[in-house]
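Annual report, structural modelling task.

Input specification for the adenosine-5'-triphosphate complex:
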Amino acid sequence: MTTDIHRLINTQSALETEAVGKKIGSHFKGGEVIELISDLGGGKTALTRGLAEGLGSTDRVMSPTFTISRVYSSGALQMVHYDFYRLDDPGLLRHELVESLTDDRTITVIEWAHVVKDVLPKERVTINIRKTGEEAREFSIHYPESLSYLMKGLET
Ligand SMILES: Nc1ncnc2c1ncn2[C@@H]1O[C@H](COP(=O)(O)OP(=O)(O)OP(=O)(O)O)[C@@H](O)[C@H]1O
Ligand SMILES: [Mg+2]
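The model returned the following structure:
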């Protein structure tokens, strides 16, 4: 059984959110899975932008809403960013996702994971983002002890 650790982080701007993502992304080793949950415009993609920066990718993260997935690489690692918004059935992408989830050189970040919940590993980081003001967001982060290295250096 895994007991989740829970922490709350507040940001006051998209840049601050990116900085949080950057800290988390700087600890990536490969194999991590991050599920992002919020309403539209909550800041999932903004956080992902930071994750890619932290990984060391120089490509600017854009929303994959219409392409479903985008890949960002740095050295031997790659981060695949999925967005299943509006998809009732992921089709062949489910297979692609499983490959990415099980590759130890790949970090998988997923927005709107409702249609692929069944293939997500238990050992993952789940981040719920809540809009607490025009530019204020609260990040509620759950993760197992085995992934706590990702949160090093994050202030509460
Ligand atoms: N503290 C904040 N953190 C993140 N984004 C913020 C913050 N304050 C304002 N914003 C703005 O909120 C919007 C967040 O958009 P973003 O695309 O990241 O959301 P999303 O959750 O990915 O939405 P979608 O579900 O449509 O993909 C951006 O326009 C960003 O500039
Ligand atoms: Mg998005």
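The radius of gyration is 14 Å.
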